[in-house]
Amino acid sequence: MKFIKFPLAIFLLFASTSCQSKVKSETKETAQETSSEVVETPKLTSEELQQYETAYFASGCFWCVEAIFESVRGVKEVYSGYSGGTEPNPTYEEVSYGRTHHAEAVEVFYDPEVISFTQLVQVFFGSHDPTTLNRQGPDRGAQYRSIAFYKNDEEKKIIESYIDKLETENIYPSPIVTEVTQFDKFWKAEEYHQDYERRNPNNSYVRNVSIPRLNRFKKNFKSFLKEEVH
């Protein structure tokens, strides 16, 4: 795959909102509001999802990351949640305030006959800035750090090899700080966070941060997109 050099500036958004600030500025009821124009699509059952592989990534606000992976061909379902820490049953308020060691993360269910783990790693690195420590766009804190999780030695090798390629090709102007971490457990986030970008298109953070980030990914990775996303 041809590597695409992304200027650092495109990742630094001059938005006054952040994923974290929602805890301070909105009530839970407000966060749960959804657009009346959104058509809900049936979710796959747990039994149906068992036939697919899973991958786990963290790269900033999970609303953004979920929407990006949902647009990728071969991806069957994506859930927002928390991973990378040791505390049990983390909540959004605890994680967003940095009261745990978890990061906002996503669980990706995918069909390996359509898209490979290697390609998902390419999606991960191509859709965020892996050189900003504990930060992604306007979101700051270790809960927004960049993490590529691996479940076995093969996945670890794929991630590390891809990082080596990116650095050898000087794709980014600064060193990659992404953590390569063995996957332990994924805690699914509260229901109102699932499909948040799609269900809340008028939210200020979604308009100013999430949608522009998704559109940049779609522009640069057209061959990775589902047909209905083009």
TrEMBL record:
It catalyses: L-methionyl-[protein] + [thioredoxin]-disulfide + H2O = L-methionyl-(S)-S-oxide-[protein] + [thioredoxin]-dithiol; [thioredoxin]-disulfide + L-methionine + H2O = L-methionine (S)-S-oxide + [thioredoxin]-dithiol. Residues 1-21 form the signal peptide. It is an enzyme of class 1 (oxidoreductase). Pfam families: PMSR. InterPro entries: Met_Sox_Rdtase_MsrA_dom, Met_Sox_Rdtase_MsrA_sf. Keywords: Oxidoreductase, Signal. Its EC number is 1.8.4.11. Residues 54-205 form the Peptide methionine sulphoxide reductase MsrA domain. It comes from the Bacteria. GO terms for molecular function: L-methionine:thioredoxin-disulfide S-oxidoreductase activity; peptide-methionine (S)-S-oxide reductase activity. The active site is at C61. Has an important function as a repair enzyme for proteins that have been inactivated by oxidation. Catalyzes the reversible oxidation-reduction of methionine sulfoxide in proteins to methionine. Belongs to the MsrA Met sulfoxide reductase family. This is Peptide methionine sulfoxide reductase MsrA. It comes from Flagellimonas zhangzhouensis. The gene is msrA.
